[in-house]
């Protein structure tokens, strides 16, 4: 190895577990690729104040050798590539050449053992158990590590991790559900009872829970039974608990927890979740006991917040069994305690929706939307629930206004997609509130069902008999109207484009040679690089000529001409689109954005402002108008637009920040 060789640079912005795993990954990579590793312990935007004093954990000489200061990090990072840039390769050749050229590799992976396609992960995984001893911990830390090894290693211990802490008590974490992090106590009890003769140790960021378990299972250990860490700092305690967990024979924990995941990785083993260690019958019986405990009311829990979070798990189980009346009844005592958890009205509104209690659903949604603590995803879901409840009451215009706000905020959120699809299939959508789109085709372009409870609050078969729509067909032409960054990147997302293209193979009532199908597929083929720009222009020129009254095809042709650097023709086609519907705010906005790209700034900005004066329900349009006035220094004119944008979707912080600047 020469001094000029590139190094692996590890950094994480979050907490102990992910940072340790990142460091072990760097040690592994440096060894296997014959180079060094460095650690950027203080990356910009880090969110772990308890780790601000790394000398509490690491010896000074080790930090001197491995920690980067800001200047050295900037120098190395200027020619670095992220590790994922090499994970699509079939050999190490390009990575080795990159390192040999003196360029470094940034490693931010902190949840999984990293292996490239050409490597065998099962030969790498066990090595992590020894890598932890290559980190230069202080003598104080090492002494406790030795004591832990003596007490637990090789003893066949089961370690349990219960995640609560900031999820119950911290802002903003308490205000949304964490189904992959919160596991009810009853599941831990089921495994403890099934393994009564096995030594067990429990870890939790909620000490009261460990005490409760030790009352019921006196033989169960806690950290203080292994080593006294009471006089240590939080960072030291966190690490030593994580290390102690890693010495267990098996680690049983929620699906998502960096802390327990890192412990399992350090141990060289896979972390286990309850479906790995309990039978279906044991799981089912435990879930029934969860429901029984929720039925006892909030007093059966640490606090109302824990009752709310465990209720979310119970409601999920009941929803899967179509027992919405029971779920509705269980929520009422919790809601009567006024829980400080913004998600509870979302869950109860959905119960009402599934019970066809439209009025109460609408009321709960309206009240819930006033909570300033709602997470963006939950705000969008509640808007969509309200929209669907209004649609069921034949209030089509109000329903569509709410759906549009939900869609432009989070068009990929599964609940929004399912509820929006239901409304579209039931003719509850007023298309005038949306930009020009092929709604006849959209009804037919569907996607596969979402996996159950995968970022879903609702149960699909109770809401929608058919497969949900693939609304990327709308975003294909209008992705710049959404607030969601992932949704905006559709045209650069090959996977989503391919899934959209595949959905055209399942059309039922529209022929595959229908012009609307040909036009959409032509655009997709161009975006995917299958068809040339010239071929696509030919298809779209014919379509727009055959359907001259449809603004969508003129706009698509304008997009193609612009890509071909034919600005004059592009502007003419945008004008043709606008002529089809002169007062359409979405077309006016699209013309304004085109003129801005063309360099006609003033003309384009005036069009955008005109669009905002016509449309009062699309946050992006209102926000763009406000930003124009803000850039011009006309704060008084900017404020009404920015206020409107903020009111349409309050969780989107950019509008709030711009509004503050306008005051």
Count of strand segments:
7
Q: What would you call the structural class? A: mainly alpha
Unreliable segments (pLDDT under 50, ≥5 consecutive)? none
What is the makeup of the main sheet? 4 strands, parallel
Give the key terms.
single chain, 663 residues, mainly alpha, Rossmann fold, 4-stranded parallel sheet, 3-stranded parallel sheet, 7 strands, 57% helix, 4% strand, TPR-like_helical_dom_sf, Tetratricopeptide repeat protein
Summarize the structure.
This is Tetratricopeptide repeat protein. The chain has 663 residues and is mostly helical.
How would you describe this protein?
The longest helix has 17 residues. The termini are far apart. The strands form 2 sheets. The protein has a 4-stranded parallel β-sheet with strand order 2-1-4-3, sandwiched between helices. A 3-stranded parallel β-sheet has the order 6-5-7, sandwiched between helices. Among the domains are: 111 residues, no CATH class; 138 residues, Rossmann fold (3-Layer(aba) Sandwich); 58 residues, no CATH class; 129 residues. Helix 1 links the parallel strand 1 and strand 2. The protein is mainly α and 663 residues long. Helix 20 runs parallel beside helix 22 and helix 34 packs antiparallel against helix 35. The chain is built from 36 helices and 7 strands. It comes from Ruegeria profundi.
